[in-house]
Amino acid sequence: MIADVAGRLADRFAAVDRPWTGAAPADLGPAIAAVDLDRPLESFEDAFDEIGDLYLKDAVWFHHPRYLAHLNCPVALPAVAAETVLAAVNTSVDTWDQSAGGTFIEQRLIDWTAQRIGLGPDADGVFTSGGTQSNLQALLLARDEAVENALLKHRLEVGTPLRGVEVLPRLRLFASPHSHFSVVKAARLLGLGEEAVITVPADDWFRMNPAALDAAIETCREQGLIPAAVVATAGTTDFGSVDPLGPIAEVTAAHRVWFHVDAAYGCGVLVSRKHRGLLGGIEHADSVTVDYHKSFFQPVSSSALLVRDRASLRHVTHHADYLNPAEAVFPNQVDKSLQTTRRFDALKLWMTLRTLGPDTLGDMFDRVCALADQTWDWLASDPRFEVAAPPSQLSTVLFRLAGADDDTHRLAREALAASGEGMVAATKVEGRTALKLTLLNPETGLADIVPVLEALARHGKKAQEAA
Ligand SMILES: *Cc1c(COP(=O)(O)O)cnc(C)c1O
């Protein structure tokens, strides 16, 4: 069955001639709703044929060289093979007695990543479902450290008992306007509220201003509030900008505030031989988010949270008699995770590193970063376009159709997707729509991108003429 699927899937991939068919919800929704889930088909082959119609025919193909939209990567084949293995064995990396070698394989990759970052001898971490969960857990650790410190301080200075819940409303987090929305979401989930996130201004290159951060923390202290964490972004989702990690680390050290680096996107730089310097300062972080499913070319999901001090992970530990009793002598990864039953995603990265090696992955990421620069130059020199941001430090490109308004951009992008000629994303830069390319396919070249841009210009012109 599995060998058969591999063959059929390979045929599908070979037949893909565009990133997407542009199917509308009205095409797919009713067909899927009409399936009678209580009445199985005759065979697995029939079921596979059915998903061929309902899903694969109109799937969005991230490996296609003209898929240029979101932070999705084509996947390394050793990882796809590993996905089959881990699903078949069905290892759960929560306790030693459900994973055995899996525990050590995951741990080796955590140690390897922490070493690449330079977190030091007490580092640790755990695989997570994605950057959103990694950021949530990082901020949970920061919150609980801040609460513990505040309670201790209160006991020493005031002498009366104080409850943790009384501290929560005073906690503040700091992030730039270009940080990922999961930071604000985490603040909500952690009982701090969105208002707890203080926005620190960024410069013209969309990077956090460290002097403004220093001032914001100072103001916070003067108001009797407690700065609990600074979130620096190493690769903002829209701009690929990297906050100045070294100078931010100096500010967080001076104020003794938890320093979290969200490197969900930029983590690929950890294996780059060319650009490693871009992440200078990350070694000072208290916690780091990495998304292997973005710039390590891994299938979703594959992500991790790394911490400088393994003791900080105690904030998510709970000992259950039936699972991971406190007196357990074997390592139980569940002690460090928000999840209980957990996929053995680490095997995918393991197989990728053991087959391709880190330098190859780094070269792949370097290639898409270089391609973004080439594309930027091409756009800047063509009067039909204007660039909407300076060249990215990573692999995004923001631009507009010259003289076009928001509606024209929307129509041009929709027409492009519907035609199957290519896929691009859209966002806003300074309140105005901009089109966005996120380049993550090392097999894409400028020769693939230019026809997509030409098509956009054509669709934009048509939309303007019709208006
Ligand atoms: C994608 C992204 C996230 C969220 O990661 P998921 O894996 O999608 O949950 C967080 N931060 C940044 C900067 C991202 O680009």
Automatic annotation (TrEMBL):
GO terms for molecular function: transaminase activity. It comes from the Bacteria. Belongs to the group II decarboxylase family. It holds the Pfam family Pyridoxal_deC. Gene3D superfamilies: Aspartate Aminotransferase, domain 1, Type I PLP-dependent aspartate aminotransferase-like (Major domain). Keywords: Aminotransferase, Decarboxylase, Lyase, Pyridoxal phosphate, Transferase. InterPro entries: PyrdxlP-dep_de-COase, PyrdxlP-dep_Trfase, PyrdxlP-dep_Trfase_major, PyrdxlP-dep_Trfase_small. PANTHER family: CYSTEINE SULFINIC ACID DECARBOXYLASE, GLUTAMATE DECARBOXYLASE-RELATED. This is Aspartate aminotransferase family protein. Its cofactor is pyridoxal 5'-phosphate. The keyword Transferase applies.
